[in-house]
């Protein structure tokens, strides 16, 4: 955690931020822990099953085929390579022909699933499916390769108590599916919440130790210290549009809550260049000026959108050469105009579901876009922005594995670019176990992860689901920021509003406000001990600290900190 100070002081202060990893390792020791680890490397030998396999019988296939049987028309057999035993599925005639194990699930229980998969040739998507009495639960999918093992990590929530059957699925019936190190670990909702609480204390907070001393370096006992948080360290924001520019109630509501924003439409190509060669950034400029005035960070959204329905109308008639020239001009124009004024760029939107530019400019279109984008603005992360990667385990087009596949293609041409993972997060009913597992997998890249357009489909449980998703995202150690997709319009928001037209909170707005309060350090006050020390546990962010002592007048200063977790205790001293 980097620390900087504002204002000099007559009282010297020693501040020690203790490593969070050491502070909370024993928190809620009775709760079954969750394993946030995931592997995105294809390994020669699979790793041990998470949670010891959980409720899976014979998870490492060391007891032959005990607990496992053929599913459909497949044939199965135990094999061994380099001392590692696994099950091989062959003679497959249908996508669902595989192995299976019968299980018994509990209602309202979250199940974390993982397995290591290999295919006999090429690379193919392989999914895990759970057949239950109420339907099919899709546990997740991975792009498996031949000659090495890939980790599939996913999960689901059981909505009924009763028997179930796990099996695997691949559309290519000509391949063999090899499976090893399978795990299915159940968690109660209370245990799941305890993981969130523990993670928040570990990655979003730090213990602060302050020592007040006089000019001669002597400790000052009974000094009064008060601490007030001025700004949170974790960025949570909401989208805005040009309606905010002349609406004072909207401005007051928005600026009193959020530290980051995205423009809903005003920076998109179809808004800035309605006719070819006639660029108009008036609305985007005005919104950026408003954000700067209120010290609100801005994400650039978006440079290009791969959906064929979301292009400037004049683009469709261009030849490939003309389109290439127009795209080059668009990237240079918008990114050079706002270079140095934004914290990130969504360079290509929804590239896993759509391929407007690839269909006209070739398979390397997207990597080429990022290479040019990096050349124009190398100062901030360049995001790939996509939906259903954490929302829906049934969407094979946008699984974490597919996302990583596209990311590697881009990185192959732009090795020095700062990349980021943008997850739109347009939810229906959330699958929290799958969401967490997907974040685990994507987090293994070490790249910044943002939920960029979070909303929930309208319905009686909209506010409840929003709270669950926000809590899961904020508590996840690999998530770096959240933007809620609820820009206000008189005729209604995209899918979810936070207020009515008078800017009184709806139930969703109350959820956001309650969590923002919950994730902010409360005002702390106390006296230093006989050695001049005072301790407090604070959320990451900017804090104002006031010190008073009978021997001196009152003094205050601001401690500005980043979100980076500490690897060792950090000490600094404020002196005159």
Automatic annotation (TrEMBL):
One of its GO terms (biological process) is xylan catabolic process. Residues 1-25 form the signal peptide. The keyword Signal applies. InterPro entries: CenC_carb-bd (IPR003305), Galactose-bd-like_sf (IPR008979), GH (IPR017853), GH10 (IPR044846), GH10_dom (IPR001000). Keywords: Carbohydrate metabolism, Hydrolase, Polysaccharide degradation, Repeat, Signal. Gene3D superfamilies: Galactose-binding domain-like, Glycosidases. Pfam families: CBM_4_9 (PF02018), Glyco_hydro_10 (PF00331). Transmembrane segments: none annotated. GO terms for molecular function: endo-1,4-beta-xylanase activity. Residues 228-515 form the GH10 domain. Belongs to the glycosyl hydrolase 10 (cellulase F) family. This is Endo-1,4-beta-xylanase 5-like. It comes from Gossypium hirsutum.
